[in-house]
Every structure is written in structure tokens, then in C-alpha cells.
Amino acid sequence: MGTSEIQTSGTPGGTRQTPAAPPAPGEAREPAGRQEAAPPAAHAAPDRWRYARHLDLLAAAAGAAGGADEAGAVAAVLRDPDPVMAQSAVVTHIDRRAVRLLPGAGFRDWARALDSVLDGHPFPARRLREWTLLKAMASGGSWSAAELAAASDWCQRTAVQSPASDEALALLAASARTRRVRNAAARRLHRRAAPRSE
Predict the structure, then answer these.
(1) Residue 82 gets which letter from DSSP?
(2) Which residues contact 175 (CB under 8 A, 6 or more apart)?
(3) Disulfide engineering: 136 pairs with which of 50, 143, 155, 174, CB 3.0-4.6 Å?
């Protein structure tokens, strides 16, 4: 007999090919559709799924009953066994919420509630402090040059793009950590001053 062939098309006359190695007598053939084990990179997928689920949970808590249980949801996420991933999810949530709350009067109560559950989690705690600094600069609240000078690159970049005071922009133009921020602050100051000189 010639080499056995298998039909790979669902219709008669379809393309045929020779299997690489026929099963030995008495050996079960591999079930159709069975796939080989996933490559090692696939093991990271559960972390990505948990990250997305955490963001969904936090968004739902923020939107339910005026965000009354948002701090509790943040605390629950921070109990995840992967602290790096959990803190990253919380920081993403803080950024999304702060952008919406910054112009309004509810920002301070929101920040105070979250601050109570961020103890021992330096990354989200610092991000919340820096959003509070940005709020103070935008609304004429109390802030210090030392706070802004010690702030992260992210905070200084965000300050340049926010409705910061001339005082804050002058400080950043003179002593921001990166040239990009210094130049951006100087350009904003120049644009603000231009109408006054006309």
C-alpha cells in the first residue's frame, strides 16, 4: 500500500497531505483541534486580566452612590498578591479620577478618603499627594516652592500643562528637573505676558 493520506478539506477532492508520523498500533490519535501548550509569554496574561478587572472594579465603585465605597475598593485592590500590578492599577485610577475632579469642589474630600487607605503604598500615595499639589496651584490654595521642586518629573510636566499660577510657572522655568519642562514653562509665561505688553 502507498503512504496513507488524510483529507484536510471539508469537501471531496480537497487538498490532501501526508501526516508527519502516523500513530503506532494501539496508540490513540491526538484529538482533533487540540493545541500545544501555550508559550511562556502567555503566563503573563492572568496579570493583565487582573489589572483590567481591577480598573473595572474601581471605576464601578467610583460611579456607585457618589463613590461612597471607592476607598474600600482601592484598599481591596491593594491586597492583590502582586503589589506592583495592584499599585499601578490604583495609580491609573487616581489619574483618571483626579482629572475629572480637579476643577470641582469635591476633590479635597475625595483625596482625603483615598489617603486613608494608601498608607504603606508609596507609589499611589505620592501620586495622590502630587495631584493635591496640582489642585492647590490651580485653585490658589497653599503650596510651597520646595514641594514643587521636589515633585516627580510627571508632576512637573503636568503642572506646566495645567492652569498653574505665574509663580509656579516661573519656578518651573527656572529650576524644573528637565529642559523640556523648563522650556515649556517659559513658553507659557511668554504667551501669558504677550497680551499685557500690547
Answers:
(1) -
(2) 149, 182
(3) 143
Instruction: Give this prediction's pTM.
Output: 0.72
Instruction: Tell me if 89 sits within 8 A of 54, measured CB to CB.
Output: yes
**Distance separating alpha carbons of residues 61 and 70, to the nearest angstrom:** 5
Q: Which residue has the cell 487607605?
A: 117
Cα torsion 108, 123, 140, 181 to 10°: value is -150
Measured CA to CA in angstroms, residue 168 lies from 149, 152, 176, 187 at distances of: 10, 15, 10, 13
Nearest to residue 76, comparing CAs of 102, 48, 50? 50
* pLDDT for residue 10 is more than 80: no
Contact 80, 37 (CB under 8 A): no
